[in-house]
């Protein structure tokens, strides 16, 4: 039930953002966010920026020692603990070059943050699970949802990828002629 609630929240968040037709962008913290909510959003954004730099040395400043990633990439299942998360981050970064992460929009309260991210990279190695070859460009959008502890550190993370972006990366099924072969 919690997974459905988070999925529904992510969809509503994206819909609300797509309805914004304002020509001027509001400052990041306009709207009266509490200091805790600002810290939560800053911590989530800092982790996203680590993937572009490849420097995960300060991950412990933003992620709790018992943090959990509930949606890591295949073939991993739930990843628990800061050391395991850092190993996963390094593994992921080792497969990508020229990583860029643009935070499009973010919202937070005292318990959760949600950030819409546009990501791009060049695949360094073949990734048979995602059907990507070395040298291939990857582009995707996602909504990153984080739960934060009392100190603002991330305790739980869920990622919701934009379905068409995910489908672009999937290997073509044998006999499927609906998309060109890579």
Q: Nutshell version of this structure?
A:
The protein is α+β, with helices and mostly antiparallel strands and 182 residues long. It has five helices and six strands, in the order αααββαββββα.
Beta-strand level of the residues, as a percent range? 25-35%
Q: Examine the secondary-structure arrangement and name the CATH architecture.
A: Roll
Q: What is the helix tally?
A: 5
Q: Could you state the oligomeric state of the chains shown? A: single chain
Computed structural class: alpha+beta
> Which whole number gives the mean pLDDT?
81
Compressed to H and E, one letter per element, the order equals HHHEEHEEEEH
Name the CATH class. Alpha Beta
What topology, given as strand order, has the largest sheet?
2-1-6-5-4-3
CATH topology title: Nuclear Transport Factor 2, Chain: A
The 3D shape can be described as globular
Largest sheet: 6 strands, mixed
Provide the gyration radius in Å: 17 Å
Number of strands: 6
**How many structural domains?**
1
Unreliable stretches (pLDDT < 50, length at least 5) are 4-8, 10-17, 19-27
Spatial gap, N to C terminus: 37 Å
Secondary structure: helix percent: 25-40%
